[in-house]
Specification:
29% of the residues lie in helices and 24% in strands. Helix 4 links the parallel strand 7 and strand 8. The protein binds hypoxanthine (HPA). The site of hypoxanthine has 14 residues, from strand 5, strand 8 and strand 9.
Length: 277
């Protein structure tokens, strides 16, 4: 987000651009993580808008992240899908502030976040999908640090039910084999050391990754419900003999992409039917 620009002005400007190009009034926002971008191809009646055209949207710099907003219908539900995110390790903790707040401003009631993650739990091996039920923020920062705009959200938002229990239940009803667990957010960009992986396991985390949590904080702050799924791509460093690399993450994410797409489509259909929103 450019400095010196009023965030509310950027949000309003991005919304005007979007609403000038589509009639879709989205009810669910979706953020696609590393290697999970294929979901965008399942969206119908799509209007695509590049982040380049949207005020305050980041320019994702990491391979596997496209930088495209897709507005359309998924299993009949009007959605706004952010294909590509900026990470805190790219240099700006609040890089996703405008996109997440734009989802709210467009009328979304909830956001479905996704990411690739490393497993910290032997019972959740690579290749599985894990719904996130809570988190440990180990990033040492928050996108909400700094002056608060009370018109956007409260100074001290609650995270008591950060991951909406009804929406978690809805995810589980769509995929009985879905794992569940606690996600530790790691600043990165370096992967963890084996000692750090041991620490996160002792603290009770089931998976570790470098995203999602800043978006959870932004979403809860502005009143969006949150549900999230991690695609487990590897074991944490030191838990297996396999080296952990970004390329390997993308390869395994591609392998679980079909199951992820089916889960989100089924969730969208169930979300449209249910009155949990
Ligand atoms: N650590 C941090 N981020 C990740 C990992 C990991 O092991 N796998 C995918 N994203």
């Amino acid at each position: 987000m450019p400095k010196n620009k009023d965030p509310k002005a950027l949000i309003a400007q991005a919304c005007r651009t979007i609403q000038g190009q589509t009639e879709i009034a989205p009810r669910l926002g979706i953020v696609l993580g590393s290697g999970l971008g294929a979901l965008a191809e399942r969206i119908e009646n799509t209007q695509r808008i590049s982040y380049d055209q949207l005020a305050g949207f980041p320019r994702p710099g990491v391979s596997g992240h496209a930088g495209m907003l897709h507005l359309g219908t998924l299993a009949g539900l009007p959605v706004a899908c952010l294909q590509g995110r900026a990470h805190v390790y790219e240099g700006h903790a609040a890089a996703m502030a405008v996109p997440i707040r734009v989802l709210r401003q467009l009328g979304c009631r909830a956001v479905y976040l996704s990411c690739a993650a490393g497993s910290l739990n032997q019972k959740i091996p690579p290749g599985h999908l894990m719904t996130i039920t809570d988190h440990l923020n180990m990033m040492g920062t928050s996108p909400l640090v700094g002056a608060n705009d009370d018109a956007i959200g409260p100074r001290f938002p609650s995270l008591a039910d950060a991951y909406d229990p009804d929406l978690t239940a809805l995810q589980k009803s769509c995929l009985p084999t879905l794992q569940q667990g606690i996600y530790a957010a790691w600043l990165g960009p370096a992967f963890e050391t084996p000692a750090e992986v041991r620490m996160l396991r002792i603290l009770g985390a089931d998976a570790v990754g470098m995203s999602v949590v800043p978006e959870v904080l932004l979403a809860r702050h502005c009143g969006l419900k949150v549900t999230a799924t991690a695609g487990i791509t590897n074991y944490g460093v030191g838990m297996s003999d396999d080296p952990v690399t970004h390329e390997q993450t993308l390869t395994v994410a591609a392998q679980l992409s079909d199951r992820f797409c089916q889960l989100v489509s089924d969730f969208a259909a169930a979300f449209a039917r249910k009155s949990v929103n």
